[in-house]
Design goal:
The protein is an alpha/beta fold and about 260 residues long. Helix content is about 40%, strand content about 15%. The protein has a five-stranded mixed sheet. A hairpin with a 5-residue loop joins strand 2 and strand 3. The longest helix is centred in the last third of the chain and has 20 residues. The chain is globular and about 50 Å long. The relative contact order is 0.17.
Length: about 260
């Protein structure tokens, strides 16, 4: 019962868009007073930890996270099967993730089918609402060319025309690459989220919950420094991001580096 209560609290804290029952208020407060085994940051100041320092080193001050979407393969659902077919022609969920340089998942949205464009997910996410409300002050996310350029979301130049624009794109790619590393670590540890592990054999709602559980456990593993022996090659991970733009780093990575 204690594990179930903790899981309900965590599901309430993040944006799922699923019909997940919330625990009674008194139970919510009681469980929150403890040290939960898994963690997704919810306060604005949590986003500033580490990333702003690292981003400033890459000539990107005030950047607090890197954003991208990744596809989790699922079995063809019985209802509205066509909307789950992505541009690579397999069924999936398209999951939005924001990561910090330590590969910790700071925010995610796991409620959209594979045919949904990354930009649409961002525009309709709770995190976008928080940025628009000014909760994060003058700060930015870094996204690839699959996203629109906005006052709170920086994207690369499609066709850089001069040295400053080329420098911007290089700095952008070297800073934003943390999200690709995060996907590599996540899907290497939980192969059920990667096509090399087949596909999740459940209805989309349950597949979303499984994906959420894997992301929460991913954060726990990062926090506890649980080693990961094998990392899926980045090319496999990036090929699953069917909406994304150009990527610079195409080598394998070890967790924590």
């Amino acid at each position: 019962m204690e594990i179930e209560a903790k899981k309900e609290v965590e599901l309430k804290r993040i944006e799922l868009g699923l019909s997940v029952p919330a625990p009674p208020p008194q139970e919510d407060r009681r469980v929150r007073e403890r040290d939960l085994p898994v963690y997704v940051p919810s306060e604005a100041e949590d986003f500033f930890d580490h990333f702003e320092r690292v981003a400033a080193m890459k000539r990107f001050p005030n950047v607090i996270g890197a954003i991208d979407c990744t596809h989790v393969p699922i079995n063809a659902p019985k209802a509205e099967e066509n909307i789950y077919v992505n541009r690579k022609q397999y069924h999936s969920l398209n999951i939005q993730v924001v990561s910090n340089p330590d590969n910790v998942i700071m925010d995610f949205c796991a409620r959209y089918p594979g045919s949904t464009h990354d930009a649409f997910i961002w525009a309709n996410s709770r995190l976008h609402e928080r940025f628009e409300a000014g909760e994060f002050g003058i700060s930015y996310l870094l996204g690839d060319s699959g996203y629109p350029l906005q006052h709170n979301l920086l994207t690369p130049f499609t066709n850089p025309e001069n040295p400053p624009e080329e420098l911007y794109n290089r700095s952008h790619a070297r800073t934003r690459v943390v999200i690709e590393k995060t996907f590599g670590v996540l899907k290497s540890r939980f192969r059920c989220l990667h096509r090399s592990g087949g596909s999740l054999q459940y209805e989309p709602d349950k597949c979303a919950k499984i994906s959420v559980a894997c992301m929460l456990l991913h954060n726990y593993c990062i926090e506890q420094r649980i080693p990961l022996e094998e990392i899926i090659d980045d090319d496999f991970i990036m090929n699953e991001n069917v909406e994304g733009g150009a990527h610079e780093n195409r080598h394998t990575h070890k967790e924590g580096k």
